[in-house]
Design goal:
Elements (H helix, E strand, L loop, with lengths): L3 H29 L6 H29 L1 H18 L6 H25 L8 H23 L6 H24 L20 H31 L4 H21 L4 H4 L1 H22 L5 H7 L3 H8 L9 H30 L1 H5 L1 H20 L5
Length: 379
């Protein structure tokens, strides 16, 4: 592997990002009780965070082109550290709204930067190393869910977590400043014979990613509150959520190494099929014990789909198409989460949560069409 020091630094950043991304789901009971927010307000907060994804990803592509990867990541990390400090004052609804808008948008942008930089670790195994990094992110996500869920009603735990994450980011920023990052032109990737943008498969990929992210994020954002409404404790549901994240983490380590042997598109199709079946079993029959298997089966979908977006354009567009792909998927998340809180209040949690398996079903349908369309483009 090349650039081992940079890989280790990215790994540390991924732990922070994983923990940060889990905070909304873990501490949603605190927002509802001590902060006295409504389910609809929580839905607006989640929607605002994905709107942050959209804004920062749209701006991020231009910033990356102008100042380079290293300076961009330092700037994004500083802003994220400030947004986490802002969330300490999140008992004020407007501050919580803005704080999650900034922190989740910046987290996704930093994730995307790491996705773009993954080719620098290996010429032939970039997806393997990328999935290892996302596995490490899962350590932060599942670990925080496992250890913090029993304190999901504690304002002290909320504040302490934010302070620890902020201090960690300061250390990462200082190390990143000293760590050399090779700024180079992006490598050519397989595209069509003319090197044009392949609009049809790219659109199918965006739709596949969009409906998949709705399903995955629906689990992380709402399953604790959903389970508590069903009579289970926050600690029980935190364990199931941690198992989901642990499944994702484990799958990225194990399945990520098999992508080269099985094939990228075949892995996507198999993961979507198994994931769809498990989503229906969990949310129609309340089989929460299957969350680990669900996480394992869908573990490689997000990093693989995002990385595959660069396969349908010439190298000169690869960074920008990566940010645009993720930002368009965020539009679907914004629309879904904006309406989901109101749907819960109108129809109830159980009925509303069935939107997740049906979203996964749509992702499967678009993914299977994508697989057939992409055969002539991706070897």
């Amino acid at each position: 592997m090349k650039n081992k020091k940079l890989f280790i630094l990215f790994a540390a950043l991924m732990v922070v990002l994983g923990t940060s991304d889990a905070l909304r789901g873990i501490f949603s009971p605190l927002f509802l009780s001590s902060f006295s927010f409504t389910e609809a307000q929580i839905g607006v907060i989640v929607s605002a965070s994905y709107f942050g994804n959209l804004i920062f990803l749209l701006l991020g592509g231009s910033i990356l082109d102008k100042i380079g990867l290293k300076k961009s990541m330092i700037a994004f990390s500083i802003l994220m550290m400030l947004s986490l400090i802002m969330l300490v004052f999140g008992y004020i609804y407007a501050i919580l709204l803005v704080g999650f808008f900034l922190s989740l948008g910046l987290s996704t942008l930093l994730n995307t930067c790491i996705n773009i930089a993954s080719d620098s670790f290996s010429a032939t195994k970039s997806l393997v190393y990328l999935n290892v990094l996302f596995f490490i992110q899962g350590l932060g996500t599942s670990g925080s869910q496992l250890f913090l869920s029993p304190f999901s009603l504690s304002e002290r735990a909320w504040n302490l977590t934010l302070i620890v994450l902020s201090v960690s980011l300061i250390a990462i920023i200082l190390l990143l400043w000293k760590c050399p990052i090779e700024e180079k032109k992006e490598k050519e990737m397989k595209t069509s014979k003319k090197g044009n943008i392949e609009y049809a498969p790219l659109l199918l990929l965006i739709l596949t990613l969009s409906f998949y992210t709705i399903a995955e994020h629906g689990v992380t954002n709402y399953i604790i509150s959903y389970g508590m409404k069903s009579g289970l404790t926050s600690s029980n549901m935190g364990t199931f959520l941690a198992l989901f994240s642990l499944g994702i983490m484990t799958g990225r380590l194990i399945l990520g190494s098999l992508i080269g042997k099985i094939g990228e598109m075949k892995m996507v199709a198999i993961s979507l099929l198994i994931g769809t079946i498990l989503f229906f079993l969990i949310f129609s029959l309340s089989l929460f014990a299957l969350t680990f298997v669900l996480g394992f089966s869908i573990s490689t979908l997000y990093p693989t789909l995002v990385a595959l977006s660069r396969r349908f354009v010439s190298s000169s567009y690869s960074s920008r198409v990566t940010t645009i792909t993720v930002s368009l998927a965020s539009v679907f998340d914004i629309i879904f989460n904006f309406t989901f809180g109101f749907a819960i209040e109108s129809f109830g949690f159980k009925e509303s949560m069935m939107a997740l398996p049906f979203s996964m079903l749509l992702s499967l349908i678009f993914g299977l069409i994508l697989t057939s369309k992409a055969k002539k483009i991706i070897a």
